[in-house]
Amino acid sequence: MRYVYLALLLALAAVVFLFKFQNLETVTVQFLSASLTLPLSLLLLGVYVLGMLTGGVFLSLIRSWVHGATTKPPVRG
């Protein structure tokens, strides 16, 4: 089973490197008065990572709201 995981990891790495080398053209991103020029593959990687971070924060916020709404308050007496 270890060799299957290794083969899958190598295939994924090959796909990532192929994507990177096919998207070397540069793009310019502008926001307000700032601009940034970088390769398209790096821009997509940055957007992906930013999406993972914000998605994880959003899901944990929703989970805490649901947990707070479904738990009973402690009885004081």
TrEMBL record:
Protein name: DUF1049 domain-containing protein
Listed transmembrane segments: 42-62
Domain Lipopolysaccharide assembly protein A: 22-60
Keywords per UniProt: Cell membrane, Membrane, Transmembrane, Transmembrane helix
Source species: Variovorax paradoxus
Entry GO CC: plasma membrane
UniProt xrefs under InterPro entries: LapA_dom
